[in-house]
Design goal:
Layout (H helix, E strand, L loop, with lengths): L20 H4 L18 E4 L1 H5 L6 H9 L4 E2 H8 L3 H13 L3 E4 L3 H4 L2 H12 L13
Antiparallel strand pairs: 1-2, 1-3
Helix pairs in contact: 3-5, 4-5
């Protein structure tokens, strides 16, 4: 935009953390309730309890809950907060277990549908490169 602001949303919370990811999660990896890691497209949103508890959360948990006032995917959170994807997965699962986030896992049938992948590829090919040239389709 002309004033330098971004139409896509607020800037990331701050600079990337200098803390090693395994320190943030105490070396844990958190599978979801189904026993597998949350898919990157999983949507998370803060609960009223989570927003009320902001003052008592760790830095990273605070950032996740605060960013989830509106639904966000796990991938969006990791990028926005500049945290490792698996750190966000672990912390989001912890916050879900404490009732501070609501987690909406997409239907696995939809995520494995080849027609969805084809539409994504077609959409990406419809974006011109820096010279304004469209990619050839295969």
């Amino acid at each position: 935009m002309a004033d330098g602001s971004s139409a896509a949303g607020p800037d990331p919370v701050g600079p990337a953390s200098a803390v090693r990811p395994f320190l943030v999660t105490a070396g844990r990896v958190a599978p979801s309730a189904a026993g597998r890691p949350m898919p990157v497209e999983t949507q998370v949103v803060a609960t009223v309890e989570g927003l009320d508890a902001l003052g008592g959360l760790s830095f990273e948990q605070y950032d996740i809950v605060a960013a989830c006032r509106r639904p966000q995917s796990i991938a969006e959170l990791a990028a926005r907060l500049r945290l490792h994807l698996n750190v966000v997965r672990v912390l989001a699962e912890d916050l879900r277990a404490e009732g501070q986030l609501t987690v909406h896992v997409p239907d696995s049938d939809d995520t494995h549908d080849a027609s969805v992948l084809r539409r994504v590829i077609d959409g990406l090919r419809a974006i011109p490169d820096s010279r304004g040239v469209l990619r050839d389709s295969d």
